[in-house]
Amino acid sequence: MMQNKVFLLRKIGIAEGVSFLVLLLIAMPLKYYFNQPLAVKIVGWLHGILFIAFSSIAWEVKSERNKNFKWFAIAFAASIIPAGTFFFDRLLKKELTNS
Q1: Is the dihedral of CA 90, 8, 96, 55 positive or negative?
Q2: How far is it, in rounded angstroms, from Cα 75 to Cα 62?
Q3: What is the reported pTM?
Q4: What digits encode the pLDDT tens for the residues 22-64?
Q5: How far apart are CA 99 and CA 95, in angstroms?
Q6: Residue 54 neighbours by CB under 8 Å, 6+ apart
Q7: For the chain, domain boundaries
Q8: Are 50 and 42 in contact (CB under 8 A)?
Q9: Distance separating alpha carbons of residues 57 and 41, to the nearest angstrom
Q10: DSSP character at residue 48
Q11: Residue 40 to residues 33, 52, 71, 73, 84: CA-CA distances in angstroms?
């Protein structure tokens, strides 16, 4: 069951990272340069939901795998840094192969 949560965390992390990059690199330029705010509204909502899901599942994985708070802080920081979740995914993948 725990492997499933880590797998879910990895998949949501990738989706969250992609949504963040789409928000920053596509939706925001559409809003500010082409006066098309709808893209920010849609992608912003999607990104927000994925951010909350990522943070929640990261907290569950932290608790269930007896990780320290530093581990969660790294996961959270990865979710607010553009492309950070891609690097965090590598860390998770390495953890899974070592356990």
Answers
A1: positive
A2: 10
A3: 0.92
A4: 999 999 999 999 999 999 999 999 999 999 999 999 999 999 9
A5: 6
A6: 9, 12, 13, 16, 75, 79, 85
A7: 2-98
A8: no
A9: 24
A10: H
A11: 12, 17, 31, 27, 20
